Write a sequence for this structure.
């Protein structure tokens, strides 16, 4: 027994303590368990899955075996060149290389276990004009999974957004992030050396002699000190649901408008900072435009099949069909210099009151509720609509007329809508330049949403957390939105957040399994 074991009255011990149960946390636990280590996973809320369970479950893994079997001819040097061109030098080159090159071997590793099955879902890279961008993307998703296959584990899986934040029934078939987490839980259930715990959140890290030896964990039964002889992996998501931390670090928007689970309050992040961990990108998030609902929340909205977005001057300000993070950053830039205020408005036409948005994050309420809340408006003329939403009538008429003329010609010289593959990837709507046409004219209020913060703990390429001097803190690792994002201030492609979370969790667990016990 080392002096660390006798210095603190530990309640229990394990080799690896994983804080958080999203895609990164569970892959870290799986990798460590498969290497023979004893693992405890703690989840602060009552459900496993984190933000991953709400997501589409996509993974940006260039040149992986699933893509190869489908005929993909990409090369890893091209993928890395694309990623570096988009991200630049905002994050370390070694970190970027570890992510881009780490996805394919991770998929091969996971596919050796029958619990994991993946399939291709074409999803264009988000900077389609960049050299070496892929029009079909570098993207895979988990294969669907019958909910019944989870057995008793089904009750522990975080429901999809439509169920958790809406009234949709729980699905009989799990897809996207639901299937990804479900498959991870199934895989972990076969390991006797893994224990999964809910309603157990990290309150402090136990820091002894310059390293992390374990954590103080709050449970329903009281606080427990858990010794982690190999190390602690923080995979607890971001701090997007904490307005206090958003204000502290200057993250625009509101906790109410984030799509992450309510438990993502940044507690583990603060615990790491308290033991000297360095942080980066703390004012950043994975942004998206958000349709505003009667409860006041603006939720991640994707796949516009028509309409244009206008500011308070009644003018367009960007490519409405651009990838959501790029479009939202146009909103942020204008919010910052006062050129736009919230809400901004989607202008569209047609008989249906609903805006032309295929995915709104959560189920829509009754149209009358939006109208009563002043969020949706209808008028027979554009000047009348302009009066209802408080924008100059002449500007709105001019904007819609100009857009419709360009749409009729099939080109958008103002903002290039439709020029990149992603713009044309909306299901059932290959041409995003849909004229607004004649009345009735409609407007729907939009705000700013996010998929989570992306600032967090600085790490090296093995996911070891660094202190403020740039040295690894023994025994402490991070991944996912608890880690400063490898993509810096951009969003290179769909599946980047989950993919990076999984890769760095896997690398962390491999490092934990391969190295000697950290000696604080």
């Amino acid at each position: 027994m080392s002096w660390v074991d006798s210095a603190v009255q530990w309640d229990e011990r394990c080799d690896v303590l994983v804080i958080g149960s999203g895609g990164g946390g569970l892959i870290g636990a799986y990798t460590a368990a498969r290497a023979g280590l004893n693992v405890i996973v703690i989840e602060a809320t009552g459900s496993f899955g984190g933000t991953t369970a709400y997501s589409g479950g996509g993974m940006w893994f260039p040149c992986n075996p699933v893509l190869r079997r489908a005929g993909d001819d990409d090369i890893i040097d091209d993928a890395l060149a694309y990623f570096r061109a988009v991200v630049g030098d905002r994050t370390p080159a070694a970190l970027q290389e570890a992510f881009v090159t780490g996805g394919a071997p991770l998929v091969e590793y996971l596919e050796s276990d029958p619990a994991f099955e993946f399939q291709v879902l074409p999803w264009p890279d988000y900077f389609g004009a960049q050299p070496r961008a892929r029009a079909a993307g570098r993207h895979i998703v988990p294969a669907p999974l019958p909910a019944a296959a989870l057995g008793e584990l089904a009750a522990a899986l975080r429901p999809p957004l439509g169920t958790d934040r809406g009234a949709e029934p729980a699905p009989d078939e799990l897809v996207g992030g639901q299937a990804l987490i479900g498959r991870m839980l199934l895989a972990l259930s076969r390991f006797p050396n893994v224990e999964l715990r809910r309603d157990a959140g990290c309150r402090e890290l136990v820091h002894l002699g310059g390293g992390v030896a374990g954590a103080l964990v709050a449970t329903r039964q009281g606080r427990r000190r858990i010794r982690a002889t190999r190390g602690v992996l923080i995979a607890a998501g971001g701090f997007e649901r904490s307005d206090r931390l958003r204000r502290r670090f200057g993250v625009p928007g509101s906790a109410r408008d984030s799509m992450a689970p309510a438990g993502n309050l940044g507690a583990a992040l603060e615990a790491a900072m308290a033991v000297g961990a360095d942080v980066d990108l703390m004012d950043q998030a994975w942004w998206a435009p958000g349709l505003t609902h009667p409860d006041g929340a603006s939720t991640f909205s994707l796949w516009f099949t028509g309409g244009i977005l206008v500011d308070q001057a009644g003018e367009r300000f960007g490519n409405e069909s651009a990838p959501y993070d790029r479009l939202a950053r146009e909103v942020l830039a204008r919010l910052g210099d006062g050129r736009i205020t919230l809400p901004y408005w989607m202008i569209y036409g047609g008989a249906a009151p609903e805006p032309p948005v295929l995915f709104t994050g959560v189920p829509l309420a009754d149209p009358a509720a939006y109208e009563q809340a002043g969020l949706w408006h209808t008028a027979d003329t554009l000047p009348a609509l302009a009066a209802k939403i408080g924008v100059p009538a002449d500007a709105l008429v001019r904007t819609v007329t100009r857009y419709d003329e360009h749409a009729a010609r099939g080109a958008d010289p103002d903002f290039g809508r439709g020029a990149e593959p992603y713009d044309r990837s909306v299901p059932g709507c290959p041409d995003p330049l849909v004229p607004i046409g004649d009345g009735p004219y409609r407007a729907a209020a939009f705000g700013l949403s996010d998929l989570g913060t992306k600032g967090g703990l600085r790490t090296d390429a093995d996911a070891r957390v660094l202190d403020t001097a740039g040295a690894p803190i023994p025994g402490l690792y991070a991944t996912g939105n608890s880690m400063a994002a490898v993509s810096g201030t951009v969003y290179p492609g769909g599946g980047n957040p989950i993919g990076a979370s999984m890769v760095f969790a896997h690398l962390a667990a491999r490092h934990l399994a391969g190295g000697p016990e950290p000696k604080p």
About this structure: The chain has 14 helices and 23 strands. The first helix runs from residue 3 to 7. The two ends are 14 Å apart (CA to CA). The CA atoms of residues 240 and 453 lie 5 Å apart.
